[in-house]
Amino acid sequence: MVTWRKSSRSGGMSDNACVELARLGDGVGVRDSKDPHGPRLGFGSREFGGLVARIRRGEFDH
């Protein structure tokens, strides 16, 4: 069974813009918390680590 987890920092967000993550074998699954049965993205562990690093550096900030 896959266990999806929402960030503990998402609780106070008024717009509900949150994603959930799940461990999928040797990778990570990502889905929209408002649409749990909708599309999902899958990343290998290295890919996901690279994505998180880029987010932390602000590469996707508007």
Spell out the blueprint of helices and strands.
Layout lengths: L4 E2 L12 E6 L2 E6 L7 E5 H12 L6
Antiparallel strand pairs: 1-2, 2-3, 3-4
Based on Cα principal axes, name the global outline.
Answer: globular
Strand content: 25-35%
Main sheet overview? 4 strands, antiparallel
Average of pLDDT: 88
Summarize the structure.
With 62 residues, this protein is an alpha+beta fold. It has one helix at residues 45-56, and strands spanning 5-6, 19-24, 27-32, 40-44. It contains 1 helix and 4 strands, in the order ββββα.
Structure description:
By secondary structure, the protein is an alpha+beta fold. It has one domain. It contains 1 helix and 4 strands; from the N terminus they run E-E-E-E-H. A 4-stranded antiparallel beta sheet has the order 1-2-3-4. It is globular, with a radius of gyration of 12 Å. The relative contact order is 0.17. The mean pLDDT is 88.
Please name the defining characteristics of this protein.
four-stranded antiparallel β-sheet, alpha+beta, single chain, 19% helix, 1 helix
